Amino acid sequence: MHAAERQKRILEALRPTGFVSYRDLEILLDASPATIRRDLARMDDEGVIARVHGGAKLPESGDARLMGTPFDQNITRNLATKQAIGKAAAALCAPGEGVMIDGGTTTLQMCPHLDGLGLQVLTNSLHIVNALLPQVATRILLPSGAVFREQNIILAPAGEDSMPRFHAPRLFMGAAAVGPQGAMQADPVLVAAERRLIDRAEEVILLVDSSKFVSRSGTIVCGLDEVDILITDAGIDAGSRAMIEQAGARLIIA
């Protein structure tokens, strides 16, 4: 069992009571105590769990943390706004080039506007694959790995480089929240996969609707200084607009 799957199971074990013991984790994960300690230490550093004597617990409820939302529930939220953002993002693609599109309900809205551009698209999202399949001129590349059902994306084992030998001018990605610390996700198992995409891109383009500019803590995917372009809607507040501009990112209002 790879690290991403172990972390996912640890979070699942925590949800019923908010606490899980080391002994229970050894049985659940069939892993050594040393491996479990490393997993918990990493998750504690990321703020996802809190290590305590005898095991781990969920963070205190007073700390506003991101909560993951299943894809099929999230896709209808702010749909018109996401469609406008997706269209604006697709307009940045040049005919015939290679791009990377990370899985997400906002990045999915790019797909109808890519038809006819003859793009080569690397994506980890099965939803995006399904949207692009009817486009005969679009070439689709996928990494290898296991399917993460909640988001319908493909995740490779931790430490394994399963991406095709692919480098792209642009990466289009979403986020669960954006704050001064950077772009964040609710689920830490997504972060390693997104970092692999970031490392292969010359330009990182972040697609988020204005509701994502909230005060939350989560697992940081990248700092704002790593974002080249941020596309959002007119609902962005003045403070968030200033934060993005101070970080040096180009802001596009869809």
UniProtKB/TrEMBL annotation:
Taxon lineage: Bacteria, Pseudomonadati, Pseudomonadota, Alphaproteobacteria, Sphingomonadales
Organism annotation: Erythrobacter neustonensis
Name under which the protein is recorded: DeoR family transcriptional regulator
Taxonomic superkingdom: Bacteria
SMART domains xrefs: DeoRC, HTH_DEOR
MF (Gene Ontology): DNA binding; DNA-binding transcription factor activity
Keywords, comma-separated and alphabetical: DNA-binding, Transcription, Transcription regulation
Stored InterPro entries: Carb_Metab_HTH_regulators (IPR050313), DeoR-like_C (IPR014036), DeoR_HTH (IPR001034), NagB/RpiA_transferase-like (IPR037171), Tscrpt_reg_HTH_DeoR_CS (IPR018356), WH_DNA-bd_sf (IPR036390)
Domain HTH deoR-type span(s) in chain numbering: 3-58
PROSITE patterns associated with the record: HTH_DEOR_1 (PS00894), HTH_DEOR_2 (PS51000)
Keyword Endoplasmic reticulum carried by entry: no
